[in-house]
């Protein structure tokens, strides 16, 4: 026998669950889908994100994307250490794709003949076929088109998963990215009130495992396959040699620092396809943080550091209140400083003395 | 793979006048201090499932079973290349050391070797012996393995309206095979001799072939091939079941089968191509 309170609680949970469940779509026919309007998106390299509406202006549509897989050597630190990278569209991470809930994502994936390996794509946002991996494995010289319905809102990882030991190797060679499925009416805060961002940045964190020679210097290889045996040995140790944002130590610092102004609201999408991380904005906060990345859950408020589980993408909304240089780090500070996981924001604007001021400049310690 | 493979069905058997299974044992590798046992197989034909993946109307199909004619005698190593054989290549700088950390008997098949390693050995061994040695093609391997050839998993359903049927049935078929891992290579001969007098086929060492992975789209009307894409970065391995692995992979346990349990170990044996005595005898006899 349950109490009235439990009954109410149960009913409320039931209602919430129904609301959160994707609509059962067995009645949607191929003809219905074909009749939907189409939109073609041109993807851009992270940390930038292709233009998109935060609130959908129309009903659901088919959103077309094309990604070309590029296998190529990339330099991942200032010492010239080389990674035989595998990339979606040439960047690490792959581009952030943005759609709205109930849109259909239609991706054409191209594996050019000049590549040497088979690849596919597993969307954590998709339902069935290993996230699409089971329907997208392509050899060099092939292309494939996958369509899936974006039923759940949030930020989700996508990554290559071509079977067995190829999976972690491709992922830590750069083949991962994220998709953001926005609620049709945009983001809402913990009170259910609409929130908007003025800028959006996508940060994909990577852990790399570069083998060393007998002297301790990083080795380089003619091709990805040549380094495979050695890299797997380093991977099995689970200690990365590099932990970086956007493919390289310093890819989001200096000339490439992200820019914002005091008073602007920024959405930072952060993915890690393989390993846990804990983003922190030094000198700022997360006003609203979707730590698990799923917008059906109310965001957490006022976080200092948030946790992104390996294999997920989260996002943080923050309105900058002070000008200056902000470091955005993985707050395992060894990984941030020694292994590379540091990005910078350059924020212009007027200083707010109320929030902080130096009451007295440094001087010799006062006696008595 | 050429567009002509399906046409072979009609011409197969045309020259199958020699009983399959007759074999002649011989010893080859004359410049080598340690001669290698070779078995010569007389020409014949086999019916076997083509390697690779086949699509029709964009959907996976069962691998077509074709009758294939081998019209020349096949000189193939009776045993897989051994740890000792391969060590000689490493010692002379022709081969990379195998990716093998376990204690394996010297006369056991070499394992922890990639397709690239197997080819390096074939190059070195050809040089050392003055003969031309190479990996067998998938169909040559199947022909030599005879009743030990397993090929593709059977009983896989292809439902045009439900791709998951294929995944579920192939998974089930693999589970039902109940292959237990058998990781440690054993001395040569441990897995017995097949009907052609060759040893150790389909034991716990899978063998590299020279056949590339290929995805073939069959014509919608069933009359041939609409298109095909080779991926020669992946080669076919044969053993207790067929496997496809990237050329640089040397560790069978780390996976690579389209379905199911990965190969226990990766090794190889070679074929000798030459106008040697056997071919000359056969041509005198008018067989070739
Ligand atoms: Cu890949």
UniProtKB/TrEMBL annotation, chain A:
Residues 1-25 form the signal peptide. It catalyses: nitric oxide + Fe(III)-[cytochrome c] + H2O = Fe(II)-[cytochrome c] + nitrite + 2 H(+). Its EC number is 1.7.2.1. It is found in: Periplasm. GO terms for molecular function: nitrite reductase (NO-forming) activity. The keyword Repeat applies. Keywords: Copper, FAD, Flavoprotein, Metal-binding, Nitrate assimilation, Oxidoreductase, Periplasm, Repeat, Signal. Transmembrane segments: none annotated. The keyword Signal applies. Pathway: Nitrogen metabolism; nitrate reduction (denitrification); dinitrogen from nitrate: step 2/4. Belongs to the multicopper oxidase family. Homotrimer. This is Copper-containing nitrite reductase. It comes from Mesorhizobium qingshengii. The lineage of its organism: Bacteria, Pseudomonadati, Pseudomonadota, Alphaproteobacteria, Hyphomicrobiales. The gene is nirK.
From TrEMBL, chain B:
Transmembrane segments: none annotated. It comes from the Bacteria. Residues 43-272 form the Sulfatase-modifying factor enzyme-like domain. InterPro entries: CTDL_fold (IPR016187), Sulfatase_Mod_Factor_Kinase (IPR051043), SUMF_dom (IPR005532), SUMF_sf (IPR042095). PANTHER family: FORMYLGLYCINE-GENERATING ENZYME, SULFATASE MODIFYING FACTOR 1, 2. This is Formylglycine-generating enzyme family protein.
């Amino acid at each position: 026998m349950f109490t009235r309170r439990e009954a109410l609680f149960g009913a409320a949970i039931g209602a919430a669950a129904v609301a959160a469940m994707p609509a059962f779509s067995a009645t949607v026919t191929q003809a219905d889908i074909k009749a939907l309007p189409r939109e073609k998106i041109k993807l851009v390299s992270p940390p930038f994100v292709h233009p998109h509406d935060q609130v959908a202006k129309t009903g659901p549509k088919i959103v077309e994307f094309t990604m070309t897989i590029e296998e190529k050597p990339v330099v991942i630190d200032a010492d010239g250490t080389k990674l035989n990278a595998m990339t979606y569209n040439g960047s690490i991470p792959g581009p952030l794709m943005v759609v709205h809930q109930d849109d259909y994502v239609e991706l054409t994936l191209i594996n050019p003949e000049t590549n040497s390996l088979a690849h596919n794509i597993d969307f954590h946002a998709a339902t069935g076929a290993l996230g699409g991996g089971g329907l997208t494995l392509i050899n060099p010289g092939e292309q494939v088109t996958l369509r899936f319905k974006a039923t759940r809102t949030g930020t989700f990882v996508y990554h290559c998963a071509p079977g067995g030991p190829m999976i972690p190797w491709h992922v830590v060679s750069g083949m991962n990215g994220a998709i953001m499925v926005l609620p049709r009416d945009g983001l809402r805060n913990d009170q259910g009130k609409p929130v908007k961002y003025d800028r959006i940045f996508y940060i994909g964190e990577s852990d790399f495992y570069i083998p060393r020679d007998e002297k301790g210097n990083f080795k380089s290889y003619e091709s990805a396959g040549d380094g495979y045996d050695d890299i797997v040995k380093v991977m099995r140790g689970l200690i990365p040699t590099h932990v970086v944002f956007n493919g390289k130590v310093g890819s989001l610092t200096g000339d490439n620092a992200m820019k914002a102004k005091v008073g602007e609201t920024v959405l930072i999408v952060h993915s890690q396809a393989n390993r846990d991380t804990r983003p922190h904005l030094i000198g700022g906060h997360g006003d609203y943080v979707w730590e698990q990345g799923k917008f059906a859950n109310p965001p957490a408020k006022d976080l200092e550091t948030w946790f992104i589980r390996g294999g997920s993408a989260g996002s943080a909304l923050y309105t900058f209140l002070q000008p200056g240089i902000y470091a955005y780090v993985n707050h395992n500070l060894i990984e941030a400083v020694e292994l590379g996981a540091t990005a910078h924001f350059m924020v212009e604007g007027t200083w707010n003395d109320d929030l902080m001021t130096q009451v007295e400049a440094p001087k010799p310690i006062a006696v008595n | 793979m050429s567009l002509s493979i399906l046409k072979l069905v009609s011409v197969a058997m045309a020259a199958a006048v020699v009983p399959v299974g007759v074999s002649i044992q011989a010893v080859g590798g004359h410049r080598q201090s340690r001669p290698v046992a070779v078995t010569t197989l007389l020409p014949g034909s086999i019916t076997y499932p083509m390697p690779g993946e086949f699509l029709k109307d964009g959907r996976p199909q069962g691998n077509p079973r074709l009758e294939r004619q081998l019209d020349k005698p096949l000189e193939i190593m009776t045993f897989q290349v051994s740890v000792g054989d391969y060590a000689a290549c490493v010692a002379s700088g022709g081969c990379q050391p195998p990716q093998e950390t376990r204690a394996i008997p010297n006369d056991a098949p070499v394992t922890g070797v990639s397709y690239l390693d197997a080819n390096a050995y074939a190059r070195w061994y050809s040089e050392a012996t003055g003969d031309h040695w190479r990996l067998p093609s998938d169909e040559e391997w199947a022909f030599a393995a005879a009743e030990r050839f397993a090929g593709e998993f059977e009983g896989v359903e292809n439902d045009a309206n439900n791709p998951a049927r294929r995944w579920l049935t192939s998974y089930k078929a693999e589970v039902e095979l109940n292959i237990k891992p058998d990781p440690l290579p054993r001395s040569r001969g441990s897995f017995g001799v097949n009907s052609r007098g060759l040893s150790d086929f389909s034991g716990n060492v899978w063998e590299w072939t020279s056949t590339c992975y290929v995805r073939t789209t069959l014509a919608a009307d069933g009359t041939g091939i609409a298109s095909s894409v080779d991926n020669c970065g992946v080669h076919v391995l044969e053993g207790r079941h067929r496997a496809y692995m990237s050329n640089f992979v040397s560790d069978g346990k780390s996976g690579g089968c389209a379905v199911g349990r990965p190969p226990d170990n990766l090794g190889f044996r070679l074929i000798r191509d030459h106008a040697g005595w056997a071919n000359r005898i056969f041509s005198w006899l008018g067989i070739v």
